[in-house]
Amino acid sequence: xxxxxxxxxxxxxxxxxxxxxxxxxxxxxxxxxxxxxxxxxxxxxxxxxxxxxxxxxxxxxxxxxxxxxxxxxxxxxxxxxxxxxxxxxxxxxxxxxxxxxxxxxxxxxxxxxxxxxxxxxxxxxxxxxxxxxxxxxxxxxxxxxxxxxxxxxxxxxxxxxxxxxxxxxxxxxxxxxxxxxxxxxxxxxxxxxxxxxxxxxxxxxxxxxxxxxxxxxxxxxxxxxxxxxxxxxxxxxxxxxxxxxxxxxxxxxxxxxxxxxxxxxxxxxxxxxxxxxxxxxxxxxxxxxxxxxxxxxxxxxxxxxxxxxxxxxxxxxxxxxxxxxxxxxxxxxxxxxxxxxxxxxxxxxxxxxxxxxxxxxxxxxxxxxxxxxxxxxxxxxxxxxxxxxxxxxxxxxxxxxxxxxxxxxxxxxxxxxxxxxxxxxxxxxxxxxxxxxxxxxxxxxxxxxxxxxxxxxxxxxxxxxxxxxxxxxxxxxxxxxxxxxxxxxxxxxxxxxxxxxxxxxxxxxxx
Length: 511
Known about the structure:
alpha+beta, CHAD domain, 2 domains, 13 helices, globular
């Protein structure tokens, strides 16, 4: 499957519109390309779940890039930049979406069938913009478009200019200059894609999970909870689509979203009235566990590879570090394969689809008691998580057993996530508390990773067939992990006083 990042602008223009040239100072020359005809069949669910998220799926023939195209907005981008995935026409006929593309959008469709909903016929006249060295920098296309409904009946026709950067990151300035010239000549910026114009007024409706809008301290707590849940459900859905596209860090982002949702359910449970037949906390814990096995193994593999390189650098050639490396990599490769298969099975299960449906419903309309404004209701609930952490920290010292440190880590994460959840409402002092808690949870996470690494190394040393030389090298590695664990513990304890000061200044205790 081909993939590229595109950044394009669209402009509505009248039939009499003349495309302007760029000013000579911009240093570009224009080359007209032969015109051609294209036909695109757009697919979506009956309730337009994709296009309402800004996602388009089409099968297009005619032109140099004919085939199946799936366009997905890039997270954190400006709305103009999207990732486009491409499969050939042979991947499926109209009405039969290729499985690879259908799988990617499953978090948005959640079992709803993808069907052809509109056809767009376009006569395209392209112009390529070249720099002084003859390198392409952008393309301007003049499109005359006719839209047909699912029955083939004409719906509307219009003329549109599209401007696309050749390189989405490099050519932003060229794109801006072209946009300014077209608008100065009378073009009107248009945000709707051809698909959106083809599919009718329903495309202007919000997606299943609307964008979050946090209130201020005097706003309703119910509105705040809706914003919290919407933030993390949206995060989960798009992180899932990123993982299905094999993008880096995606499984980690899925796990974070699941954990934050679970934390919010726990922290704000006193003002929630969830149906008794839905165990969202339990289902999110199941999902996080399935993802954790994969993510933790990925992190452990990467870290131990680096540590082994250091051990090998100080050992004599032919020493046991090479055998130790082979033992570790073989063991972790098997663990990684099993964890990946388990995570894939989980996110393709009916159980996961049902969880997504339940989370979308929760984000759309959280069942919150009418309890009053944020300033009155939320601080005490967050402070409860903080007090629980304070009690656990009082019982902790550097030599406490690993399971006690792990329990403290869980409580620290709950306190951190609780502070993070209300920081958009209460602002800087609460955000600073969340930042201080993040330093502690990061240190505690490093310590836990080091403890898990020690357990793995101990298992391999005791394994039949491990030579004395390999065991010796593994012993070096074990000692390094012990040091890493104790250093992480010291870092967490050192960061604690600053967190306590930040908590006092946050005023979450009502003082």
